[in-house]
Amino acid sequence: MAPPRRAATREEPALRPAPPPAAVRPDRPARRRLPGVDAARAIALLGMITVHIVDPVTADGAPHPAFLWFAGRASVLFVLLAGVGLALSTGGATPATGVRRAALRRRIARRAGLLFVLGLACGTLGVPVAVILCHYALLFLLALPLLGLRARALGLIAGAWLVLGPVLVFAVVAAAQAAVGRQEFFVGGRLWLSPGPADLLRPGLLLADLTVTGYYPVLSWGAFLVLGLALGRLPLDRRRVAAGILGGGATAWAAAGVVGAAVLRAPGTVGRVAAAIGTDPVETALTLRTGEPRLALLIPDPLWLALPTPHSGSVVAAVLAAGWACAVLGACLLARPLVGHAALRPLVGAGRIPLTLYVGHLVVLALVDATGLDPADGALLTALVVLSLAAGLAAELSGRRGPLEAVMARLSRTGGERAVGGR
C-alpha cells in the first residue's frame, strides 16, 4: 500500500519513515479535551453569573459570602482559561510553527474581531453588567505575537506583567489626573457602561476605557491571559503539573491575602481611603471588601497599589486573583477521576459552551428587566445555574458545540484554512 500523501510544502529527512495510517498528521494535531479545564471554566462562568446577580451586601449590612468568593476572581479565572485555551489550540506544550502558526494567528485575529462585534452588540442590552467580550477581543490580539513562546518565557512575562501592569496603570492615571484634575478624569475618563456601537464614535475614550480606566483594563489584565498561555504550554494531564499549579496558586493567594489583610488593618488605611473617595469610615471599610470604582480616586496615593479589594486594579489584588484562579484550575485538574464522573457531566459540558452561556445569561437579564419582573436574587440565580447546567448536559450528550461556539468556529476560518489544524 502506498504511504500516506504529505503536504507538498513540508520537507522531511529522506530516511524518516512514513507514519502509520492511524497516526495523527503533524499538520493536524489532535486537540484532546481536558475535563478539568472545562470544569474550571464552568466554575468561572457560574461565578461571574453569581456576581452579576447577588447584592454585594446582605440585608444585615455584611458582605455577601458568594460575592466575596467570586468578585474580581471569577472573571480573572475566565481570562486565564482563555489563555489556556489559546495555548491548547496552538500546539499545547509544543507551540505550532511555520505555516500552521501563521494560519492560527489569522484565525485567532478573526475570532477577536467577531468577539469585539458581539461585545458591542451585548452592550446594547442595557443590563447592569460589565460585559467583558470587547476586552477579550483585545487580549486575543495581544496574545498573537506570544504564541510561539514556551512555558518558561511566558511565565516570566506573566510574572513581570502581573506586578508592572498595575504600576503602569497607576502612573498613567496619576499623570492624567494631574493634567485635567482628579475628579474630572474620574468622571470623564471612562465609559461607565459596557462598550456599545455608539462608542465607536468616541474612539479615544473607548480605547482609554478598554486599556486603562475601565472594568477590565487590558494594560493590567493582559497578565492573566499570558499566565494562562504559560500554563497551557505545560503538560496539564500530568498530576505533578496539576499539583504544582494548585500549590503555587494557593501559595500566591495566601501570601497576597495576608498582605492585603495587613494593609486593611493598618492604622490610617480606612481614613486615607475615606478622605479620597468621600465616604464615611463605616461605608469605606465595607467598600474595601466589596469593591467600588471610586477607589480610583485614591490615586496618586501609593496605598492604592496595595489594596486587596476586588477589581481595584492593584498589585495585591492582581496576585490574589491570579493565585485563586491557578488554585481552582489545579484542583480541577487533580480531580480528574471526580470530574470525569457522570454526575459532573453538566458542569464539564457547561465549560465547553461558555460563550453561548455567557451571552445567554445577559439576554435573560435583559428580558427580566424588560418585562418588569423582580424575582428574588436567589431565585434568578438558581434558575440561571440550572439552565446553564442543563445546557451543558445537552452539549455533552449531543457532542455538539454551543450555537455561538459553532458560529464563531465557522466564521473565524476561511475555506483554505479548514485543512490546517484540528478543532
TrEMBL record:
The keyword Protease does not apply. It comes from the Bacteria. Residues 1-31 are annotated as: Disordered. Residues 33-240 form the Heparan-alpha-glucosaminide N-acetyltransferase catalytic domain. The chain crosses the membrane at residues 34-54, 66-93, 114-147, 153-179, 214-234, 241-264, 315-335, 355-373, 379-398. InterPro entries: HGSNAT_cat. The keyword Transport does not apply. Keywords: Membrane, Transmembrane, Transmembrane helix. This is Heparan-alpha-glucosaminide N-acetyltransferase catalytic domain-containing protein.
